[in-house]
Specification:
methyltransferase, alpha/beta, 8 helices, binds S-adenosylmethionine, 7 strands, Rossmann fold, menaquinone biosynthesis, 237 residues, 7-stranded mixed β-sheet, UbiE/COQ5_MeTrFase
Amino acid sequence: MVKDSSEKPAEKARAVQQMFSEIAPRYDLLNRLLSAGIDQRWRFIAAQAAIEKKPRRILDLATGTGDMALLLKRLAPQAEVIGADFALPMLEIARQKARKLGLEIPFQQADALALPFPDARFDAVTIAFGFRNFADYDQALAELYRVLAPGGRLCILEFPPPPKGGFGELYRLYFQKVLPWIGGLVSGNPSAYRYLPESVERFPEPQTLKAKMEQAGFQTRYRIFSGGIVALHIGDN
Ligand SMILES: C[S@@+](CC[C@H](N)C(=O)[O-])C[C@H]1O[C@@H](n2cnc3c(N)ncnc32)[C@H](O)[C@@H]1O
């Protein structure tokens, strides 16, 4: 089980990898159920930002079951799209989905904190709902900066801490009470769906993530949408 932020990075990484491996078979179903399908719309917005500069080589990191990689390949069929993740059962589902759709996407196992790619290998990197889970944000950003070619673009789609005010409180109620209950019931892994709201509460505010990205070398801007529950950070190097 993934514990709190006091956990050592290597332990957190192992626990996250195990958790996603366990929930892989139910991951897509729960995504659609818990977000009422709007998660695909969020990925679409991020994918459009990622392909704006017509990248030839795109990495979808923390690709999970591959939804973002599949979308990128559909939107930019000429581009080489690679999906990478450290949880093999998630990748296996991504591979099956790509095969079914006849899309040519290599899915490979990789750790975001030590990417097995040479410097300047990609023109764009996307990370949808994966960055929050990394055990060391600064190390991940350094790796992302390294594998992006000059002029490249990083797009991070994430759940920031819930907004303040009435809507934020309602959302918190849903996120902290309803979601873990449904998630636990359907996935058979209640702790995984308790981890989700906990990790969101601990995640840096958008302004702080922007500062971290700038420290790593990215020129960064962000936008927040869906009432403040999702943020897209765009970093150009
Ligand atoms: C919430 S899922 C997101 C999956 C997918 N991007 C999506 O949009 O549905 C987070 C993914 O991040 C992966 N992940 C977490 N830490 C990672 C790391 N250090 N290296 C590679 N993948 C990682 C997990 O295995 C999991 O598949």
